[in-house]
Amino acid sequence: MTTKEDIKKQVRAAFDFRMAVRVYSDQKIPQEDLDYILDTAWLSPSSIGLEAWRFIVLEDKNIKEALKDAAWGAEYQLETASHFILLIAEKNARYDTESVKNSLVRRGLGEGEALAKRLATYESFQKNDMKTADNPRALFDWTAKQTYIALGNMMTAAAMIGIDSCPIEGFNYAKVNDILAQHGLINQEKEGIASMLSLGYRLRDPKHPRSRKPRSEVIFYDHSE
Ligand SMILES: Cc1cc2nc3c(=O)[nH]c(=O)nc-3n(C[C@H](O)[C@H](O)[C@H](O)COP(=O)(O)O)c2cc1C
């Protein structure tokens, strides 16, 4: 029987294994392993259950080539990764949009008083708490940052089965959006690139060991001195 201690060891081993991999071997990830990784993006949590995202597995070599100029942080990864995923976030997800209403419908809260009550809460949340309601940039940042949860989940899921990855935000957002729109992958009025993820198998081990701040500098309890 797998015990809790076994699982903790497996998860910790995955975190020790994971590192940002920039150059991959030519080994391909089997489709069922890719599907398993993508499922963790699909099933990730989102604020108010909005799921204001899409995950595009980029297969077209021409688009990859075009992206190289705009995505300096992904140059070798676009060339060598087994798979390359674009994390796309919705724009203008205001409290009064179909998108927000549909998230409530999905959760069985799409009618009558329940709907009105939730929408009023979201209106207040966006206007008074987040102060995003009338700021397209802030609204995009809100949905874009949620894609990072899916990004993290995919990286952990991959590492658990010995698949390498690298998160990517080293790119020119406007240029990448233009390229994706030109190739019909996104509708720029409604969505934009948030982040990217390369996946595959490392060509070689890292030259430098992983470095982190001491744990005591980042983990605190409220009664810490
Ligand atoms: C949000 C985010 C964006 C990143 N963008 C890039 C990138 O564009 N290109 C790249 O090579 N690495 C990128 N990285 C990888 C980081 O440089 C790397 O995770 C960090 O140096 C820690 O190293 P480790 O992942 O090997 O532990 C990014 C990491 C994060 C979390």
TrEMBL record:
Q: Where is the Nitroreductase domain?
A: 18-201
Asked whether the keyword Calcium is assigned, the reply is no
Q: What GO molecular function annotation could you give as one example from this UniProt entry? A: oxidoreductase activity, acting on other nitrogenous compounds as donors, with NAD or NADP as acceptor
Q: Which SUPFAM superfamilies match?
A: FMN-dependent nitroreductase-like
What the entry lists under InterPro entries is as follows:
NfsB-like, Nitroreductase, Nitroreductase-like, Nitroreductase/BluB
Q: Among the entry's GO cellular component annotations, what is one?
A: cytosol
GO BP annotations listed: 2,4,6-trinitrotoluene catabolic process
Pfam families according to UniProt:
Nitroreductase
* Keywords attached to this entry: Flavoprotein, FMN, NAD, NADP, Oxidoreductase
| Cofactor(s) listed | FMN
Tagged with keyword Iron:
no
Family membership: Belongs to the nitroreductase family.
Query: What protein name applies here?
Result: NAD(P)H-dependent oxidoreductase
